[in-house]
Design a protein that fits this description.
Layout: E1 12-16, E2 31-35
Antiparallel strand pairs: 1-2
Length: 83
C-alpha cells in the first residue's frame, strides 16, 4: 500500500442531470459542467469542440450511500450480456 496523497481542487460543478443517486440509465441524461468563473476564463475551453471525447475526474460528494465494494457490471449496464 502506498502512503502518497492526492489533493483535488474543485474546478467546476455539474449542473442539470437528475437529482436521485442511482447507478443505471444515464444514457439519456443531459448535464453541463460549469467551470469556476473566478479561476477560468472562456479561453480555457477554446478548441474543445475539436475533440470527440472529454475525460472528467469527479467525486460523488452528495452520495449518502455507505462505502461498498465495487462489483462487476456488464458493458453499459446491460445485465443480459455476460461479463
Amino acid at each position: 500500500m502506498t502512503t502518497d496523497t492526492v489533493t483535488l481542487q474543485t474546478v467546476g460543478r455539474v449542473v442539470g442531470g437528475r437529482s436521485e443517486m442511482v447507478e443505471d440509465d444515464w444514457h439519456d441524461v443531459r448535464a453541463v459542467i460549469r467551470l469556476d468563473g473566478e479561476t477560468f476564463t472562456a479561453s480555457a475551453v477554446l478548441g474543445l469542440e475539436g475533440f470527440s471525447h472529454l475525460e472528467v475526474v469527479f467525486l460523488f460528494d452528495r452520495s449518502t450511500q455507505p462505502r461498498y465494494a465495487p462489483i462487476p457490471v456488464p458493458h453499459e449496464g446491460t445485465r443480459a450480456r455476460p461479463l
